Amino acid sequence: MKAIFLSFAVLALPAIPTLAQAQAVAPVATAPKPPTQFQYLNPADFEPARLLPAPPAKGSPAEKLELETLRALIASASTARLEQAKWDAAHEDSAIFSTTIGRDITKLPATWELLEIVHSEANIAAGLSKVYFGRTRPWGLDPALHDCEGKPNANPLRGYPSGHATLSYSVGYVLAQLLPGQASAILAKADDYARSREYCASHFASDTAASHVVGTLAAVRLLADPRLADRVAAARAELAAH
User: Fold this and answer.
1) Would you kindly state where each structural domain of the chain is located, as residue ranges?
2) Residue 53: is the preceding peptide bond cis (ω within 30°)?
């Protein structure tokens, strides 16, 4: 189903960092609670019914096919890939790209500030569609599936799109524009991080595909916003200097 969304974002295929390399990145200190309303994005651009097609209806043949495909994906996964998915689930911030770009993003203040804005705004955009569509997560449909995070009180009706995947696609797109020479590796990392949500049984492929749309649109809009021009320039200069 991801083919529906290919016109919205660039796909890349290089090899991704190993789990051991990713785990070498130091965790980020807990950030202040993010805002719940857009500070920069226009809500009209992210009206769910205008932005995304409805996901497969609950109990429909399309949903059953997605569930079967997801079960097969998880069953065929190596232990290492499942462990990576678990690690990815626990690390939902822009630092996931540190190993990919070869720099600790948490120690680049101008870059981190910009990416935090992107993450926050894109997360709000994804949340609008999560509430609007109210899609049941895979583990909410099949008790035999278990999510990586082990949150017994997690909301099973926030499956479409994925918040983690929206992070990877929005922040990944911005970093790819700031570091064009590393764009392929960055976009590949974004896609692989999004796929972890499927290995975790937290989302279907159509959920992460929807995140590709939301995240990329958010990133494009934010990079073009004149109110962020100075921050974008500062981040680009900082990355060029390190």
Assistant:
1) 57-241
2) no
